[in-house]
Amino acid sequence: EVRLVESGGGLVQPGESLRLSCAASGFAFSAYEMNWVRQAPGKGPEWVSRISRRGDITSYTDSVKGRFTISRNNAKNTLYLQMNNLTPEDTAVYYCKRADAGWPERGQGTQVTVSS
């Protein structure tokens, strides 16, 4: 059974940082590209970032370029998202998912709230 458990969210002020983690199990983590996706209140899911199987190729939505960094540790079956210089527009529930999986196949998410 595929299991994805996100953690690391919280309440921060604008300009601060957070590091999200996603612990994966139930599948060969290193064999899959992975995504971070977020959903803000009242809005649909928004793709945030993607990383290749070896971690050497990454991509980001324009609004987070230069602020967020996706990475992975295949030995630990863990995906990360380093988020710097957070803004209120980054407030959302953040989910990790396999790049080949549909929206329902995601973890429970971790809440990120950016507010002064």
Radius of gyration: 13 Å
Number of helices: 0
The percent range for strand residues is over 45%
Distance between the termini: 40 Å
What is the helical fraction, as a range of percent? under 10%
Main pleated-sheet profile: 6 strands, mixed
Shape by Cα distribution = globular
Q: Give the assembly state of these chains.
A: single chain
**Uncertain stretches:** none
The largest sheet has its strands arranged as 2-10-9-4-5-6
Structural features:
48% strand; 116 residues; single chain; mainly beta; 10 strands; globular
Q: Your description of this structure?
A:
With 116 residues, the protein is mainly beta. It is 0% helix and 48% strand. The protein is built from no helices and ten strands. The strands form two sheets. The protein has a six-stranded mixed β-sheet with strand order 2-10-9-4-5-6, with no helix packed on it. Strands 1-3-8-7 form a four-stranded antiparallel β-sheet, with no helix packed on it. It is globular, with a radius of gyration of 13 Å.
